[in-house]
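Before going further, it is useful to explain how the protein records used in this thesis are read. An example of such a record is reproduced below.

***
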Amino acid sequence: MTKKTSSTHPTRAIYAALLVAVALLLWFLAQPKPGLRITTLKPVLAPGTHEHHRTLRSIRVATYNLEHFTDARNDGPERTPELYIAQAEGAAEIIQEADPDVLLLQEIENGRTLEFLNAQFDTPYPYVYVTHLLRSSGDKEKLNLGMLSRLPPSDVRQLGFYQLDRAGRPSRGSLAAEFRLGNDSRLLVYGVHLKSNYGEAPRNRAKRARALCQIADDAVARQYRNDPDLTSVVILGDTNVDPDTPAFADDPSLQPLGGGYVDLWRGRPIEERTTIPTREAGETGDPMMVFPPSAFDRVFVSRNLTAGKSQWQAQPPQTIQKGVNTSNNLAQPGTDGHVTDHHLVFVDLKR
């Protein structure tokens, strides 16, 4: 008589397979989905209490691209602490001349650099913010956006583009701030730094236009949370485009803002609107890097700021044409009086 062997049910294998499947599902659900990433920014510096300004008669908003403003830590042997200090001091002198209420900055490495810049002013700004952008690779972005403000923002956000789908994914992101100005009026300010002109022109244009589409969509959504006629929008910063120059005459990068916004630099003479001056090669510069002057640092305002439909009206923008070494285009920030390759631009809003 032979003894029969009973087969055991493979419960362990089934349970193991189920656990693996659940783990894979949870991992998949935890992955970031493609799309705009909006996060609330915590201040680098802010007072303990926020005072609301209800008697303002004018507001000055400025933008300034501080060329590779890094803190000289692990930035290579050419970026010394002495150059970092010299650049900060030179930038602070120009910023104090403009004395903006709200200043949007580009090419800021981190909060440490903004705190040091802020310490150079006779009266430091009470509100300091900086983005924490990521590149599409997941690496930290060194060219962040910053804001110094004397007005208390009710909300400061980061619009991150790095998780948008790959086709035409924009560079960097945007810093968005909202200010309550009393009598239910609000001001939305967006700081931008769009794709440069290095690389293929069609791709650069697509990236710039897509970034502005994201910003314009966000502005519409925020406007309609309040009365649109009482909500004004200013979008400003380095767009890397000047549609009034022949090189960009057919560039469609700025078209997403064409319907609802006014480009305050359009039609102004080049000597008035130059924000990127020509930098000659000199004896030790690069002859291939000599470009005509242009106005890359642009100011867009919602139409209610120019059509008498708002409590506030935008004035013509101005630029402080200082701080650029135009005799040697390879001069680094902090050397020979060179602060940055951009000029500071500001616009006044008057009640």
In short: The chain has a mean pLDDT of 90. The CA atoms of residues 281 and 287 lie 5 Å apart. The two ends are 106 Å apart (CA to CA).
